[in-house]
Amino acid sequence: MRTTPTALRAPALAASALALGLTALAAPAASAASPSASPSPSASTSAGPVTTAGTTFLTAATLAPGQDAKVAASTGDYLYWAFAASEGQTDTVQVTVTLPPSADRTGPQTWSVELFDGLRRRQSCTAGPQDATAQQSAATVALSCTLRQIRSWAEPWSGDPLPGTYYVRLSVADVPQQDLGLAAQVQLHVTAKGGADDAQPEGGSLKAPLVPPVNAGATAAAGATAAPSASTTRAAAPVEPESHWYSDIFSGWNTRWFWTLAGGALAALAGVAGYTLTRHPRGRRPAGPAPVPRQTQAPQHDPYRS
Fold it and tell me: Do 115 and 122 touch, CB atoms closer than 8 A?
């Protein structure tokens, strides 16, 4: 029996149509079964304020960039927060404390805010009332502290602020004993201005690394010279010392032997001169013995002589 090409193509077309139909039916079911990617709430909206605070450096509550803190605290507690600061920034911490009702307080209260770096070194404030005293009739007290500009480099002996984590400590510096433990509300806000463009402080810049690398970690072959590159910083050649007519006298590997012998000779001459002056201060001693003066005897009286 002879089969025509049209008869051969018919079953193939039918199979293709069946596969397309199954694919179309499975697509809605797959799309309904697979979860769709939706933006996270944190990406679309900013994070809410932090409602906790630590009591030590180790338990400090972390603040994200632009995140505030709103905490219910007790008068007399130490409250700690931590935030990150990068080079070139100038951070300012603003604190507002809502005091207990004036009827419950017995006297004024003094609050203090302090900043510490990652090494827990206390950093000085350049602006703002770091300590504030609220009278008994006051309802709130405001504190602020502006940190110095974060530097990208500093001397090992200096306490300049460097990039890293910084801690905020809020405490009561002076309060009547009866007012300890009263409920208070604390609001903390951290702002930062500046960036990496002005990281270097005014009047200071790091022109070259302290230990300039010269193909660090590479081993040059025998007889090969390293090609200079644009990123390689070479140290400046030492300045030739200025020479004088007496330079050769005070230089050389045996200079100290010359000066040792000269010093010994001068010391010997000084000893001889000192001995001469102290032993015979009036000059040289005569060569011969000194003359002995004649001794005269008094005439004796003769009792038998008239």
Answer: yes
Q: Name the region of 88 (left: φ>0; alpha: ψ -120 to 50; beta: rest).
A: left
Q: Which two tokens stand for residue 13?
A: 């077309």
For residues 105 and 178, give the distance between their C-alpha atoms in angstroms, rounded to a whole number. Answer: 8
pLDDT digit string, tens, across residues 195-221: 766 655 555 554 443 344 445 455 555
Residue 275's alpha-carbon distances to 73, 269, 270, 278, in angstroms, are 88, 10, 9, 5
Q: Which residues pair with 140 in a beta bridge?
A: 98
Q: What is the DSSP string of 103-170?
A: TT--S-EEEEEEEE-TT-PEEPBSSS-SEEEE-TT-SEEEEEEEBPPPPS---TT-----SEEEEEEE
- Is residue 95 within 8 Å of residue 141, measured between CB atoms? no
Distance CA 240, CA 28 (A): 84
Global pTM exceeds 0.85: no
CB 152 within 8 A of CB 173: no
The C-alpha atoms of residue 246 and residue 266 are separated, in whole angstroms, by: 21
CA dist., res. 195 & res. 212, Å (int): 27
The residues pairing with 82 across neighbouring beta strands, listed in sequence order, are: 62, 167
Whether residue 168 contacts residue 93, with contact meaning beta carbons closer than 8 Å, is answered with: yes
User: Residue 231: which region, alpha, beta or left (left: phi > 0; alpha: psi -120 to 50)?
Assistant: alpha
Query: Which has the closest alpha carbon to 91: 71, 70, 65, 112?
Result: 65
Q: What is the DSSP letter of 241?
A: P
Instruction: Please give the helix or strand (H or E) that residue 145 lies within, else none.
Output: strand 140-146
Q: Is 130:145 a contact under the CB 8 Å cutoff?
A: yes
Q: What are phi and psi of 166, to 5 degrees?
A: -125, 145
Dihedral sign for Cα 102, 106, 110, 116, please. negative
Query: Which tens digit of pLDDT belongs to each residue from 231-254?
Result: 444 444 556 667 777 666 666 666
